[in-house]
Amino acid sequence: MIKLLAIDMDGTCLNSRSHISAQTLTALHTLAKSGTLIVPTTGRALTCLPHQLTDQNSLFRYVISSNGAKVTDYHTQKTLYQSEIPKQTALSLLNACQSEKLGITAHIRHEYLLQGHSLVFLGRLIYGKDARKVRYVQNMEQTIQELSCDVKELQFYFFPKTPCRSSKCILQTPRLFVLPAPVSMQRSFHQNPPKGRSDASGQSLGIAKSEIACIGD
Hints:
7 helices; three-stranded parallel sheet; six-stranded mixed sheet; Hypothetical Protein, Haloacid Dehalogenase-like Hydrolase, Chain: A, domain 2; about 25% strand; magnesium ion binding; alpha/beta; phosphatase activity; single chain; HAD_sf
């Protein structure tokens, strides 16, 4: 019997307009009423969850966010699991890339920070109302330096004619997991927190792997 369903958001639960259809919501509610825990699973920061879900408190309680770097009890905001890039590792990486023109985004605490006005525009265009917590920063390295916390995720966007040195630097950073992505983008995490960290949620709730189902990429 399936006791926990971890379901991906963008490209799976959400359509091309970042909306959840009425049919999908009905199906999820039916499954939840049968006793299955619905766990939204996303590459988004926690504060950028689809607003249609955040309005459905009875539908879910646990969330896997930032591509698996964090598992949260959404009702109490308690962290059940996290795997973050140490602050100094993030700063060293950003310092090594500072001489090149890159678009940079980061998930810090529950915020989605973006360096580069074009990325802010794209984020709001893609996520719409869900991007209300997106925040522009002028200098990502300086912003992280001033914060007393580690980093859940770093994303690097390589613009045309950007040298390959930054890409090699990211790939060669010790204890850093780089998610396969288009050649113009790289996502970096501490060690290996795949988005499907449903096992972390399940273990904390006493649910075996054989009782967990995952849908999505």
